[in-house]
Design goal:
Elements (H helix, E strand, L loop, with lengths): L6 H15 L2 E3 L5 E4 L5 H11 L4 H7 L3 H18 L3 E6 L2 E9 L7 H9 L1 H6 L1 H22 L5 E8 L8 H13 L7 E5 L4 H7 L3 E7 L6 E7 L20 E2 L3
Parallel strand pairs: 5-6
Antiparallel strand pairs: 1-2, 2-3, 3-4, 4-5, 5-9, 6-8, 7-8
């Protein structure tokens, strides 16, 4: 039915079909991965707060109010990328147990967008010092990323986390592989991420990421490691069980 159309019309039709396929993906064992909807945001906050409890960056930034700061920060990022249609969830039945949040090329986060998405909650929940430290750390990392990538288009993995009760089952790895393959249906671009845990560098290498930069945040205990995964037939197609690496339960957010 495509062949009666002109080239531009065929391309537009195929892109529309690809977008419709991204509305709902199903991994091999039948557990669904789909784009998050606004109704899922509260559950996403619960999942990420569980996955990142005790995170050293948030402990440094928020001190004793780390949990409150974590929930406020997770609500902002979950809202941002759910509204941008680049937030994925892994469900068991109706229960959300893992979340992957991406920034698409060209989707910059202005101060106004961050405030509207809920960053205003951070100083209320964790104090003004916590908000200032978070802005400092992630602002420094963002500037470093822009210089490192020099404007090259890419997907940015902002957050990947699995509820702790579901850890150790390879769910994080599956969600990462499937969601990236879904994003790359429309644009086969590299994916970039930061981790602020040195032990995660080896985990990401097993997932096909290469270390391309190291970014210490001045006057803080925080260092970000920048990693990039280039698209390939293995990473831009739905993975088989043999291609799924060792389970990954937790990924850092930026």
């Amino acid at each position: 039915m495509v062949y009666g159309l002109g080239r531009r019309a065929r391309v537009a039709l195929l892109q529309t079909i690809a977008r419709s396929k991204r509305a709902h993906c199903v991994i091999e064992d039948g557990m669904p991965i789909r784009l998050l909807e606004p109704r899922d945001i509260a559950a996403a906050v619960d999942v990420l707060s569980s996955a990142f409890a005790g995170d050293p960056l948030l402990v440094w930034a928020c001190g004793a109010r780390e949990r409150a700061g974590m929930r406020a920060s997770c609500r902002m990022t979950s809202t941002l990328w759910t509204n941008a249609r680049s937030a994925y969830g892994y469900f068991e039945g109706e229960r959300l147990i893992a979340v992957a949040l991406y920034q698409k090329p060209g989707k910059q986060v202005s101060t106004w967008r961050a405030l509207r998405a809920g960053f205003w909650r951070v100083p209320l929940a964790a104090g003004p010092t916590a908000a200032a430290r978070i802005i400092k750390a992630f602002g420094h990392a963002e500037g470093y990323k822009e210089a490192l990538l020099n404007g090259a288009p890419h997907f940015y993995l902002d957050t990947l986390g699995v509820e702790r009760s579901a850890a150790g089952r390879g769910i994080g790895t599956r969600l990462l592989a499937e969601s990236l393959a879904d994003l790359r249906l429309g644009a086969p671009l590299p994916c970039f991420l930061f981790t602020h845990l040195a032990k995660n560098v080896a985990l990401y290498r097993r997932l096909g990421f290469e270390l391309i930069g190291e970014c210490p945040v001045p006057n803080s205990p925080v260092t970000f490691w920048g990693m990039r995964q280039k698209p390939s037939p293995e990473t831009s197609a739905s993975p088989s069980q043999e291609l799924i690496p060792k389970p990954l339960e937790r990924v850092d957010r930026v």
